[in-house]
Specification:
alpha/beta, eight-stranded mixed β-sheet, five-stranded antiparallel β-sheet, 16 strands, 38% helix, globular
């Protein structure tokens, strides 16, 4: 059953954003890099998908993230990072990048309180003013005033020295990504230009030295050149982004959960048009130019590149596993059993079991989503012991 078309207000909103993108294309001489188009479509102030007010998360939105399914995901993540917070002590900070609806923060804070591992402060770095307000309203309603007082919202990364845990769920996939292609052995960068009818079309222009060098690095790691006509995504800026969000982190851990692949799988020859796609009303589309501002645009994560970025920033690689392994290895069965014992009826128990299945089954989120951790001055490797996949990197 197809999703309902956008209403008149939504179409008018998208039209405003399209006009802005057209202005940027004209100012740039007729084309902008795809990464710039993606940045505007997702983050243009007041107009981009994540900057405007429509519901994004949950069944009423465009996609469901793990924290939106219930509390199990956040409880297990809290268990995974609690040893790090205890090693640091009372001065620890928990920094969440991109807080979504606030569901993760609510359940993680409650679990950290329950196991006596609550840090001195829980900080959320959220660029969207709309989402920030939704998070604030939810947490003020769900937490006691004393606990809510530990929560703060940041305008940028923590630049001053800090110790604690950085956590990001489904953040890297939404970073504006360059797209490249190969033609006659040369590297080109995908740009967005205007079609005759005012719509958007992709064109290729010679890549700059940074993107070309990044593609050649991938080819060296693969041990063979990518074939002519191959097109995919690559984030040369990932190391700089990681260092920026870590800020002044001196001792602690970073945990990233996202969908993606190790490099050899990401750049497999059969994946010749990359991983880019759009989400609208729980349906996947390859038309990333449709209705800018009304649909999410995303690309999978190259976890090998993430490992390089983390270790290049001076952190120790702590582990890499599937989401299923991360959750199972950090108390999923115990938390599921505890919630089932408190459930009021069989329907509630069934819903809990379905939540656990969605989080862990290979055909759902269990294998498509993966987790990677880094540490500095603390022990964090135990979080990944249930199913280490680092040999695939």
């Amino acid at each position: 059953m197809p999703s309902s078309p956008p209403d008149a207000d939504a179409l008018a909103h998208s039209a405003h954003l399209q006009a802005l993108i057209r202005e940027q294309i004209a100012a740039a001489g007729g084309a902008i890099p795809f990464s710039r188009f993606m940045e505007l479509a997702l983050y243009a102030p007041g107009l981009g998908y994540y900057s405007a007010g429509a519901t994004k998360f949950g069944r009423a939105g465009d996609f469901v993230t793990a924290p939106e399914l219930g509390s199990l995901f956040a409880q297990c993540v809290a268990e995974a990072v609690a040893p790090v917070l205890r090693q640091i002590g009372e001065s620890a900070t928990f920094l969440e990048i991109g807080g979504g609806s606030g569901a993760f923060a609510e359940h993680a804070i409650k679990q950290l309180m329950a196991i006596d591992a609550m840090p001195a402060r829980y900080a959320i770095l959220e660029p969207s003013a709309d989402l920030r307000e939704r998070q604030r309203e939810r947490l003020q309603r769900k937490l006691t005033p004393l606990v809510f007082a530990c929560v703060e919202w940041l305008d940028g990364p923590l630049q001053a020295p800090w110790n604690g845990v950085l956590f990001a769920n489904e953040v890297i996939d939404a970073l504006p990504t360059p797209r490249f292609s190969l033609r006659d052995g040369e590297v080109f960068e995908e740009h967005v230009a205007l079609a005759g009818d005012g719509g958007f079309v992709r064109i290729d222009r010679p890549a700059d030295p940074m993107l070309s060098a990044a593609v050649r690095h991938v080819e060296r790691e693969l041990g063979a050149p990518l074939p002519d006509g191959y097109r995919s995504e690559l984030l040369p800026q990932l190391p700089y982004w990681l260092q920026a969000v870590a800020g002044g982190l001196e001792a602690g851990a970073m945990l990233f959960v996202d969908y993606g692949h190790p490099r050899r799988e990401y750049y497999a020859r059969e994946r010749g048009d990359g991983t880019l796609r759009a989400f609208h009303r729980h349906r996947v589309s390859n038309d990333v130019f449709a209705h800018p501002g009304l649909q999410d645009i995303t690309a999978s994560v190259d976890f090998t590149a993430l490992a390089e970025a983390g270790t290049g920033a001076g952190f120790d690689f702590a582990g890499y596993c599937s989401q299923a392994s991360l959750l199972i290895g950090n108390g999923l069965a115990q938390h599921l059993a505890a919630q089932e014992s408190r459930a009021p009826d069989e329907a509630a128990r069934y819903a809990l079991r379905q939540q656990a299945k969605q989080l862990t089954l290979p055909g759902a989120m269990g294998e498509r989503f993966q987790a990677m951790g880094f540490a500095r001055g603390v022990e964090f490797g135990a979080a990944f012991l249930a199913g280490d996949l680092s040999f695939r990197l």
